[in-house]
Amino acid sequence: MKVIDISWPISPEMTAYKDKKIVTFKATKTFEKDGARETIVTIGSHTGTHVDAPSHFLKDGKTIDQILLEKIVGDCSLLDLSDVPEKITAEHLSMYDIAPDEIILLKTMNSDYQPNDPFLQNFVYLDASAAQYLADCGVRAVGIDYLGIERNQEAHDTHMLLLQEDIPIIEGLRLAQAQEAYYSFICLPLALQGLDAAPARAILIFDEDEE
Question: What angle do CA 13, 110, 112 make, to 5 degrees?
Answer without folding.
Answer: 75
